[in-house]
Amino acid sequence: VKAPQFFPWILNLNFGMLSKAHQLMQSRQIDVIHAHDWLVAHVGIQLKKIYNKPLVATIHATEAGRWHGIHNETQAYVHGMEWLLNFESWRTIVCSDYMRDEIRNSFQVPYEKIDIIPNGIKRDKFMFDFPDAWDFRRRLAADYEPLIVSVGRMVPEKGFQVMIEAAPEVLRDFPNARFVIAGKGPMLEELRHRVRAMGIADRFHLPGYVSDEDLIKLLRVADVGVYPSIYEPFGIVALEGQAARIPVVVSDTGGLTGIVEHGVTGIKTHAGSPDSLAWGIKQVLYHPDWGHWMVDQAYERLINTFNWDLIADQTKQVYARVVAEAGG
Fold it and tell me: 123-304 in CATH: which number?
């Protein structure tokens, strides 16, 4: 695959990793090469061929999915490298049913070659004494004001523009509601301009970058966590909301579809629809007891499904299968 000039640093990265991997292979017994996404496809494939070891690929997202198709040479290069990594892999791991279907449709990878292993979350980082929680919250909203929070990169696929368009409908029923959208990215100034143009800037706070510590605190004090993605291979931000024990409202797309069971572990809404998103937010605000019940159901599922110990065991099972099939 011919790389455009935009990517020489990726090749340098792969050369550096290849050199380090050679050193490790001289002193350790390595049974499987595992490459995460196209950025390390070159080094993964070369190690496979040099040492005759099976290659496992994990694909977290695809270029076609991010951009709703392939539209230029740069995207075509990334797409080609994704195809090559899948072609060279013994097995491919994805994080959701949605991503399995995307890999199958984009690269013609047979279903039987794909393993679905979800991402996980460390629940304990959300479990800490927070005696100044009300003081922290009062920096963002008065005690009587519902606090609606979303976090993520400020890019179109995260759907924050949909959340802003949904806000007037929420404010019609809950005029004291406050919205916080935390994160940085190329759309940040555009989103700030949009809330000013809509006359609702006094109801919104878009702080940009937020430290990890404050981000967790922000989730802990929220009344609703909203994740309105247009494209979302998995949706770990929704797990973070659930780990912070707040009810979540998500768009019914991508990996979020599998994370949230509608009406049980959260509320699903139609992706890209401000009216649907506003409805979901209002459902949680109108029915706080239901919201608390969904929080308990979601937390139980975090323990039983999105648990790193379980995920590690599932990954080890893939490795064992690959080694056995490869004759190692």
Answer: 3.40.50.2000
